[in-house]
Amino acid sequence: MHPTTTPPLRIGWFIWGLGALFYLMGFFQRVAPAVLTDVLMRDFGIGAAALGNLSAVYFYSYAAMQIPTGIIADVWGARRLLTVGAIVAGCGTVLFALAPGIIWANLGRLLIGGSVAVAFVGLLKLSSSWLPSRFYAMASGLALFCGIIGAVFAGTPLRLAAGLLHWRTVILISAAITFLISVTIWSFVRDFPDEKGYVNLTDSKKGLSTVSLKTILAGIIEVFKYPNTLFLCVIPGGVVGGVLTFSGLWGVPFLTTHYGLRTSQSAVLTSALLVSWAIGGPFFGWLSDRLGQRKPLYIIGCTVTLCGWAAVIFASQLPISGLTALLLLTGFSSGCMIISFAYVKESVPPRLSGTVSGVVNTGVMLGPTLLQPAVGWVLDQKWQGQTLEGVRIYDLAAYQSGFALLIVWVLLSLILLFFTRETNCRQIA
Fold it and tell me: DSSP code of 346?
């Protein structure tokens, strides 16, 4: 007997939510070292450079896994991909928590980064299989929101927990939660509705059959035959790079130096930027689905983002209320980047949805990966020799020169958007 009904929305969102839990945990692991700096340096006997490498090794393996993850998602399906990813992430977390030295800790972080890299692409795969296409962009935005929640838990709550318990105990608890997530995903998640007695929503089940270097290269070549793919690789990198370069590295010293704010106040503002970004993602995704268009809304979001960064960086001595409002608006409008994933999915055949998601997510990661060190390089070139307690102090002109790179990329993103082909929220390939 053939199934005759599509899956109820509550079932689709439940299955999506299980994948979102793993994505949340991935964000938690991403930023956890930031609030454990002192205890990690003390326990492993390392300095700032080694600690920076310990944090960065996560991103190296995360970025390297994006394109292979997209291919594997199309071959294995989301259920097996997310389950295996969560198991490996749990093992990496245990290794990090029990590491006797910095080499083992780095290996643990390497495993964590490479394994949680599957979470977002797997989640997008579940979205396309279990939710009607009109919810795809909103689901992508909600995924970003879940990720930011994970980052919030890795802030003050993690620091308080590490104060009550040893940091290794807290990390071991997070490993146990990750293993529990893997069991839950395997038990309840299925790749397609017909595996639970419902009608499939797409024909993406007709995908690739094997994973090999030849398959990976063929998949990448094929998705780039569709013009929107290349554009949508470059466009979100500038938007995301701006948010993470400012909030994750250079925003706090910029605000403390030139607005006279305390470090804690500056951290609150950069955190608010992240939260508004997390809220903007679901909003832009929902509104794009509702309007039945991708391109115009994306252009509006990029335009507001460009103007917002220009005002924050180049306006002289804004009042704190005005600066706060601008940062919140810029973060919120930056949520427009989430449209990229629905936009590009509709631009290639359904069987390549995982592949193209991995390709675009690689472009997203290139934003902060390139902009953070590039801005730092410009700052050093413009340094006037001032220091405070051994720390370099950069003047406003240096920051404006460095952040100009951010503005140039967002401007490029805006220009490229005009060359993309509107999908009208339909599969055009």
Answer: T
What CATH number did the domain enclosing 300 receive? 1.20.1250.20
- Answer for the pair 348, 359: CB distance below 8 angstroms, yes or no: no
To 10 degrees, what angle do helices 136-153 and 156-164 make? 40
Closest C-alpha to 78, from 143, 146, 163: 143
> Can you tell me the distance from the alpha carbon of 120 to that of 58, in angstroms, rounded to the nearest whole number?
15
Any bridge partners for residue 392, and if so which?
387
Supply φ then ψ for residue 384, to 5 degrees.
-100, 10
278 in the same domain as 170:
no
Residues contacting 97, CB < 8 A, separation 6+? 108, 168, 169, 171, 172, 175
| Beta bridge pairs of residue 388 | 391
pLDDT digits (tens, 9 = 90+) for 333-379: 999 999 999 999 899 988 787 788 888 988 888 888 788 778 888 88
SS3 of 135-178: the string is HHHHHHHHHHHHHHHHHHHCCHHHHHHHHHCCHHHHHHHHHHHH
Same-domain pairing of 142 and 23: yes
Is residue 415 classed as helix, strand or coil in its secondary structure?
A: helix
Q: 155 near 248, Cβ under 8 Å?
A: no
Q: Judge contact between 221 and 346, C-beta under 8 A.
A: no
Tens digit of pLDDT for each residue in 102-113? Answer: 899 999 999 998
User: Do residue 199 and residue 258 come from a single domain?
Assistant: no
Q: 346 is in which domain, residue-wise?
A: 222-417
Is the sign of the CA dihedral 177, 130, 85, 187 positive or negative? positive
Q: Is residue 326 part of a domain?
A: yes
For residue 63, what are its two tokens?
């970025």
207 and 226 housed in the same domain:
no
Q: Are residues 307 and 372 in the same domain?
A: yes
Q: In this structure, are residues 139 and 127 in contact, taking their beta carbons and an 8 Å threshold? A: yes
C-alpha span between 347 and 350 (Å, rounded): 9
- Residue type (1 letter), 192: F
**Six-digit token string for 358:** 């991995």
Q: What global pTM score does this model have?
A: 0.77
Of the residues 189, 211, 233, the one at which a domain ends: 211
pLDDT digits (tens, 9 = 90+) for 22-67: 999 988 887 787 667 678 878 888 765 677 677 778 878 888 888 7
Asked if 78 and 118 count as a contact pair (C-beta separation under 8 A), the reply is no
Amino acid symbol at 107 = L
